[in-house]
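Notebook entry, structure prediction.
Reason for the run: the old model in the group folder had no record of what sequence produced it. Starting over properly, with the input documented here first.
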Amino acid sequence: MITIEADANQILDEADQAYEGFLTAARQFASDAVPGDLAEEQLAPASTLPATIDEVNSLDLAKENIRTIVWATGYVYDYGWLTLPVFDELGRPAQERGVTRIPGLCFLGLHWMHTFKSGLLAGVGSDAEYQADHMSQAR
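New structure, fully documented this time:
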C-alpha cells in the first residue's frame, strides 16, 4: 500500500503554475527575439490537464499488480545499479517514448525523452499514459 500526503494536489498545482509561467516566459522571449519568424503553433502547447483531478490518498499496489517502482531524483543520471542491456554506446537508456526492448521496462522523466516537457513533473503524465497504453496492449 502506498499513501500520498494530503497536500500532494496543492504541491502539484504549484508545480503546474511554475511550468505555465515558464512557458509564458519562453513564448514571450521567442516572440521578442524572433519577431514574425516563430509561429505560435511551433511552441509547446499549454497544459492540457483537467482543471481538477480527484484526490487519491492511497493505492493498493498488489491489487493493481504493481510490483516495482523506482523513484529517482537528482541532477545526474546514475544507472550503475541497472545491469540490463538497455543502454546505448553513451550509457543512455535506449528507448522510444520511454519504452525499452525489455518487456515491462520503461523510463519516465528523462530530459527530451519525447518532448521538452518529458523531464518536467507537468509533462510526465502524457508519457506515462503512452507507456500504460503500450503495456496494456502487450498483455
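Summary: Residues 73 and 109 are 9 Å apart (CA to CA).
The old model has been moved to the deprecated folder.
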